[in-house]
Specification:
alpha+beta; three-stranded antiparallel β-sheet; elongated
Length: 84
Amino acid sequence: MNGKAEQAAFYSNLASIGHGLANPHRLKILSLLCHGEKTVDRLATAIGQSLAATSAHLKVLRAAGLVTAEKRGRNVHCRLADAQ
């Protein structure tokens, strides 16, 4: 990759992270996940949002590389992404 392409990718990643942090519900989700893995159901209850709204917030956080999710049985378990 050339310098301009790398720079564009860097700014794109940074904008994605900024978008992930630009909502109080997403910040609350990140704060809750700092204390350990949680299911989507538990996160929804904790932030006072519907499952659909919480899932949408988690989609943004996953796209930003801040959160990972894993389906286990009927539940989706979320945790903070590992620092790289």
